[in-house]
Amino acid sequence: MPTPTTTAPATAEEPGARAKTLRGLLLARELDAARQARGFTTRNLAAGMSMSPAMLNRVMTGRRVPTALEIGGLCSLLDIHPARRRHLYRLTADADLTDWLLMTDAEENPVDQVEHIAETITCFASHLIPRPLRTNAYNDAITHTTAAHSTPTAASARAMEISMFLLHPRSLQHPGVPVAVMREQLHHLRDTHLHRIRLLPAAVPPEPGFRVLGIDHFPPVVHIEHHNTTVLLEHPAATATHTTFLHRAEAASLTVDHAREILTDTTGPGRSR
């Protein structure tokens, strides 16, 4: 699937959407969380900002991006840490941009923030077991074979709670993983994660892996990791191919009983005993 990487200004609208862009939504959610943490009502904070409650409400829901002067005043009234203020100033300045393309180890990678506001996360994995589902032995074997980063990406408890993983059969075997390690990994999936995985039939194309994050009042966001690059797509025109593929894959997924049977096959699918 082609991956658009443009960051040209655009509007990611859908019926009922509030914020126009993901940056605007992240800004609004952080400001509103700070407002609640500091005990401000919308009316009280609006008075402190010399704004109408209706105007402040539009800022707090992302329907209106604050001006440079307003974001400074909000950060001051809400006592936001100076280091965090720089991030909010940047979100304000870039609030009309859509999509992210950045190095995975960038200082301000927004993936954790997007996960925090997501209601659902669906992952499609075609060649490797996703890191939150791996055993230590499997992860060590994979990182040794692929020369990838040695530390698994830790998923927060909340992110795991709202995540579903669609696993292509190719992800259940790997030439660089010893049979005993793969057996342990498959049994770990069966015994620990069966309720959050869906196994797919081989007829589903093994497209490169990606995630779709569902957020209230906002279009689905597609998250792709490619080598050391993080891509976030938010405009429906950019995400439609991925979301359509995901819906079709999920509809074709195997039953839980069939998945349990496959994962109990200790040699893994496609291997001889």
**Net shape:** elongated
Taking the alpha carbons of the first and last residues, their distance comes to 35 Å
Q: Describe the main β-sheet briefly.
A: 7 strands, mixed
Q: CATH class of the largest domain, anyone?
A: Alpha Beta
Percent range of helical residues: 40-55%
Name the helix and strand elements from N-terminus to C-terminus, one letter apiece.
HHHHHEHEHHEHEEEEHH
Number of β-strand runs: 7
Q: Helix/strand-derived class? A: alpha/beta
Q: Runs with pLDDT <50, length 5+?
A: 2-17
Explain how this protein is built.
- This is HTH cro/C1-type domain-containing protein.
- Residues 31-85 form the HTH cro/C1-type domain.
- It comes from Actinokineospora spheciospongiae.
- This protein has two domains: 22-93, Orthogonal Bundle (434 Repressor (Amino-terminal Domain)), CATH 1.10.260.40; 100-264, Endonuclease, Chain A.
- Helix 2 (42-48) crosses helix 3 (53-60), helix 4 (68-77) runs antiparallel to helix 5 (82-93) and helix 9 packs antiparallel against helix 11 (256-264).
- It has eleven helices and seven strands.
- The two termini are 35 Å apart.
- Helix content is 42%, strand content 14%.
- The chain has helices at 22-37, 42-48, 53-60, 68-77, 82-93, 111-117, 136-146, 157-161, 179-192, 236-251, 256-264; strands at 100-103, 120-125, 163-167, 197-199, 210-215, 218-226, 229-233.
